[in-house]
Amino acid sequence: MAKRTFLEEGEKKPVNLSTLRKLLGVFRYVVPYRGAFILGLVALVFSSATVLMFPFLAGKLLDAASGKTGFFLTSINQVALALMGVLTLQSLFSFMRVYAFSIVSERSLSDLRQAVYKKMIWLPMSFFDSRRVGELLSRITSDVSTLQDTFTTTLAEFVRQLLILIIGIAVILVLTPKLTLFMMLTFPVLTVGALFFGRFIRKLSKKIQDMLAAANVIVEETMQSITVVKSFTNETFESQRYGQSVSKMVDTAIHAARYRGLFIAFTILALFGGIVGVIWYGGTLVQSGEISVGELLSFVLYTTFIGGSIAGLGDIYAQVQRSIGASERLLEILDQKDEGEQQPIKQSLKLSGAIRYENVEFSYPTRADVTVLKSISFSIQPGEKIALVGPSGSGKSTIVSLLMRLYVPGSGTISVDGRNSSSFPLSPYRENIGIVPQEVILFGGTIRENIAYGRPSATFDEIQEAARQANALEFIETFPEKFETLVGDRGVKLSGGQRQRVAIARAILKDPSILILDEATSSLDAKSEHLVQGALKKLMEGRTTIVIAHRLSTIRQVDRILVIKDGGIAESGTHEELSKIDEGIYRNLLRLQWEAQV
Questions:
Q1: Per-state percent for the chain, helix, strand, coil, to nearest 5
Q2: Is residue 50's pLDDT more than 70?
Q3: Partner of 120 at 20 to 30 A CA spacing, among 288, 298, 321, 525?
């Protein structure tokens, strides 16, 4: 298995200046909506301020009831009206905060999702060789959802709890300094407890996330390969494998819940125990006349708010850690080097199809120690049809992958029309290359949409004509929905021959100068192969064509055959020429296939 350098989802991330900068890196997607963001922050500040008015006015209400009046509020009715005014303002500011932050989070994270997906689409094949689809899907789903919680809830809660903590302590220091100093004695107990329990809870939460990701990978793999699972009757095996993965996650979650429960129990005991102590001491101050009953009530309410903010900051810290991990994983993708220009260059480029390989060597990035192509050289004239044959793993598919610029040669050059292929703009260059693969993968839309994928701007008449030339119109017309027939996930509702003909129609519609046929008829029955071969013959007319084939009977009409062995060209010539070479590789392959058919 290739070495994985992708950041793990369960990896613990410390909170420091360096990691916070990375978290702030994704906040650039908030900049276009900074107006709503600033409005949300202002509403949050005023909302927190009005909350902190409540304990003060509640105390004044009690003092007014007992006959003690203040300078501004001289009656119980005035205090009650002030409280209702504060609650009204609190409701208004809370609405503004929630609505403004929702606008910012939904729109900015939509931009982030699109940016990550767009970036993935433009990354080179070497990136995907070392990543699982499930991992990449998790970046757009789980990681962005984690950041959504940060944008909508965590940030607001952090500012709110911080304001409550700072302003609350300042207010009670002014109102009741003796009680405040007494209350401060409970802080070390809460802090030590939060650090002790928080460490274990964060570690277990990360472990749960990692296990959930592993379980999701199992689901993704089995759903993508459901035909293999059913063919080997491994439904029970896969169910047990998923069940074991989920069971481990449940056991860990229950273990984490035990610590969370203990932490909550400790917080309740320490917090409310401290409140009881404060009330007791406050009662003695009331008896001595140093403070009023209303001031004691205000202090108790402020203490409750402050204690709650301290507990809330612990949860916020854990959420910030998860957000830092999510932002690092997303930035790792966004910072990758693109395969080419992210916006296709709108320029006309029509190649004639002259191809030349000069001393090309190549090793896959995930297997750098294995040289797949060894100083390979050959040339193809415009309109010439050549075939690449040879045993599996000899380098046939690698040759065409390099031509399509899916990978970069380790050394040597590949020239097209006399120019280094890498000197062409990537998108216009690839628009001149069409491919009909061995395993055709269709998108889960309609037949029309899948054919139009070759040229999305094509008219329906052009799509219909491409289907006719691909010998696909006959079977398409038999469906009740015709071109609007849904092909199913990866084209499962169509037969192998039908999928191949849709792929050929797609290539015809693209109208490429260079055509690659990768084992295009290897898995078809005789009738389907006849129809597909007829379509391919039309498709190859006037185009430079490279055919990769194991079934040698399908390539007898090509202009030249290149026999690839161990990353080099072992033989070259026409079918008749290679068939006459004694002890030749091509002749031996013909004999083996003949014996296999007999």
A1: 65, 10, 25
A2: yes
A3: 321
Stretch 573-578: mean pLDDT: 84
Q: Which strands, in side-by-side order, build the sheet including 419-420? A: 373-380, 355-362, 411-416, 419-420
Exposure string for 428-462, b = 16+ CB within 10 A, e = fewer? bbbbbbbbbebebebeeebbbbbbbbbbeebeeeb
Q: What is the Cα–Cα distance from 148 to 322, expressed in whole angstroms?
A: 12
Residue with tokens 């700072």: 166
DSSP assigned state of 446? B
Phi-psi region of 141 (alpha: psi -120 to 50; beta: other; left: phi over 0): alpha
Tokens of 415: 């020239």
Residue span(s) of the chain under CATH 3.40.50.300 come to 351-430+558-598
What pLDDT does 6 receive?
A: 44
Instruction: Label residues 234-273 b or e (16+ Cβ within 10 Å = b).
Output: eeeebeeeeeebeeebeebbeebeebeeebeebbeebbee
Task: Decide which of 9 and 155 is more confident.
Answer: 155
d(CA 575, CA 114): 50
Looking at residue 197, its amino acid is F
Look at strands 355-362 and 411-416 and give their pairing.
antiparallel
Phi and psi for 376 in degrees, rounded to 5? -90, 140
Pick the CATH number of 17-334 from 3.40.50.300, 3.30.390.50, 3.30.470.30, 1.20.1560.10: 1.20.1560.10
Write out the H or E segment, with its range, that includes residue 560.
strand 560-565
pLDDT at 3 over 50: no
Average pLDDT over residues 204-224: 79
Say how many C-beta atoms besides its own lie within 10 A of residue 18's C-beta.
9
pLDDT value at 7 more than 50: no
Q: Which two tokens stand for residue 529?
A: 């192969």
Ramachandran area for residue 233 (φ above 0: left; ψ -120 to 50: alpha; else beta): left
Question: In degrees rounded to 5, what are phi and psi of residue 542?
Answer: 75, 15
Would strands 568-573 and 560-565 be described as parallel, antiparallel, or unpaired?
antiparallel
Tokens 């932490």, residue located: 263
* Among 355, 350, 351, 358, CA closest to 380: 355
CB 264 within 8 A of CB 190: no
Write out the H or E segment, with its range, that includes residue 419: strand 419-420
The structure tokens listed for 108 are: 């900015």
- Cα Rg of the chain, angstroms: 35
Alpha-carbon distance 446 to 484, whole Å? 5
State which of 145-159, 195-209, 233-247, 409-423 shows the largest mean pLDDT: 409-423
Distance, CA of 432 to CA of 511 (rounded, Å): 8
DSSP result, 314-361: HHHHHHHHHHHHHHHHHHHHHTSPPSS-SS-----------EEEEEEE
Which of 19-33, 219-233, 384-398 is modeled with the greatest confidence? Answer: 384-398
Domain 351-430+558-598 has CATH 3.30.365.10: no
Give the count of beta carbons closer than 10 Å to the beta carbon of residue 525. 10
d(CA 391, CA 564) in angstroms, rounded, equals 8
Domain boundaries for CATH 1.20.1560.10 within the chain: 17-334
